[in-house]
Design goal:
The chain is of the alpha+beta class and about 400 residues long. Helix content is about 50%, strand content about 15%. The chain has a domain of about 160 residues: Cupredoxins -  blue copper proteins (Immunoglobulin-like, Sandwich), CATH 2.60.40.420. The chain is built from 9 helices and 10 strands. The strands form 2 sheets. Strands 3-2-1-5-8 form a 5-stranded mixed sheet, with no helix packed on it. A hairpin with a 2-residue loop joins strand 1 and strand 2. Helix 1 runs antiparallel to helix 2, helix 3 runs antiparallel to helix 4 and helix 4 packs antiparallel against helix 5. The chain is elongated. The chain binds copper (II) ion. The site of copper (II) ion has 7 residues, from loops. Copper (II) ion binds next to loops.
Length: about 400
């Protein structure tokens, strides 16, 4: 009845692949980080085996029922009503599944991001809520219909199935309604996206440049002129990491910063680039994410509406900080590509910006021969000599 040899060899093969996963990673576990990796794979192997064990348990129960069924028939009694049995399983699955969905809402639901801290973020949250509301309603109705029908119209000796191959009206309804709903959602999204990427209205924007490289973010703030100087990758040197072009007057007052400090309720324009691979600027509390692509400057406009202090109070977490993360897996140090973003009042921002150091350091001035001292000239000559 049970094909012992085949089942046995299948289990053996699966067990082997499970252990191989574990072994492969244990071999690679030379560093502590890899140790954590091995732990993760141990977890995967454990749950895979647990799942297989559950499958075997179900198969055994099935076989026992089958034996019971055959015994009943041998005794001349009616066997198990399999149709009723399967129908009830559909119903049980419906109830367990809907409860599972409810459970994940209540337990995992509070792990979502806190209130949006930007103007467009509120719109994005609204769209998310509307989309979610519609899909949840559709989900519940379709699940009830799917499993409810399977239960109500389960196989029966008293009934013959009705053959119903096609109905144009139903086809039209379930094509047109989702098409209209999706069009409305997409149009909403389109208008929100248009305001975010509006490049014509730049007056009064605070231009901040974010450059991603493996594995850090470089920040550049414009000086008093409000303009960021142009840059060119040909000009990149040890002292001019961004390759800023000092032929332009706009470049001289540009500032470097380690923390992204933003004034409350100001229009911020992030000018985003990358120097090596594709990175992604991700500031979840502001509902902001955009790729940083080498050779293709992108930008994102937003208005922060809640200060860091305000968010700390809302979350009752005195250590809370907004963060800018990298959201593209860009290499080994990707996880560490994050900087602190702090939203402060206008006055605090003005105070902070005055303390920031210029991008044009003394070393860079020497490189560019902007300082006329004998040592500098000698240094420059040495450099030329070396280059020759
Ligand atoms: Cu990155």
């Amino acid at each position: 009845m049970i094909k012992y040899k085949r089942t046995g060899s299948l289990i053996a093969a699966l067990m082997l692949s499970g252990t191989q996963l574990v072994m492969a990673d244990t071999a690679a576990a030379a560093t502590p980080a890899a140790d954590a990796n091995a732990d993760m794979w141990m977890g995967v192997a454990y749950y895979t085996l647990l799942f297989l064990l559950a499958c075997i348990a179900v198969a055994i129960i099935g076989k026992i029922l089958k034996v019971y069924d055959l015994t009943l028939k041998l005794q001349g009694k009616k066997g198990i009503k399999w149709n009723n049995f399967m129908g009830s399983l559909y119903l049980a699955f419906l109830i367990a599944g809907l409860y599972g969905a409810y459970w994940s809402f209540t337990v995992q639901g509070n792990m979502i991001l806190p209130e949006s801290a930007s103007v467009h973020g509120v719109k994005i949250d609204e769209m998310m809520a509307i989309t979610f509301g519609i899909t949840v309603v559709v989900f519940v109705i379709t699940q009830i219909l799917l499993f409810g029908f399977a239960f109500k119209y389960k196989g029966s000796d008293d009934r013959k199935a009705y053959f119903y191959p096609h109905n144009n009206t139903i086809e039209k309804i379930w094509t047109v309604i989702p098409a209209i709903v999706l069009t409305v959602l997409v149009v909403f999204g389109f208008f929100t996206w248009k305001t975010i990427t509006n490049s014509t209205d730049v007056k009064g924007d605070i231009n901040i440049e974010v450059t991603g490289h493996q594995f850090a973010w470089e920040l550049r703030y414009p000086g008093k002129d409000g303009k960021l100087g142009p840059k060119n990758f040909h000009l990149i040197t040890a002292n001019n990491k961004l390759g800023i072009n000092y032929q332009s007057q706009d470049s001289f007052d540009d500032l470097r910063a380690d923390t992204m400090v933003l004034p409350l309720n100001a229009s911020i324009r992030l000018n985003i680039t990358a120097q090596d691979v594709i990175h992604s600027v991700f500031m979840p509390h502001f509902r902001l994410q955009l790729n940083a692509v080498p050779g293709l400057p992108t930008f994102f406009k937003f208005v922060p509406t809640i200060t860091t202090e305000g968010m700390r109070q809302r979350l009752a977490d005195p250590k809370f900080e907004y963060k800018l993360y990298c959201a593209k897996i860009c290499g080994g140090g990707h996880y560490n590509m994050q900087i602190i973003v702090r939203v402060v009042s206008q006055a605090e921002y003005q105070k902070w910006i005055l303390q920031q150091k210029p991008y044009l350091t003394d070393d860079l001035k020497k490189d560019l021969k902007l300082v006329n001292t004998s040592t500098t000239t000698a240094g420059a000559q040495n450099k030329i000599a070396l280059n020759n």
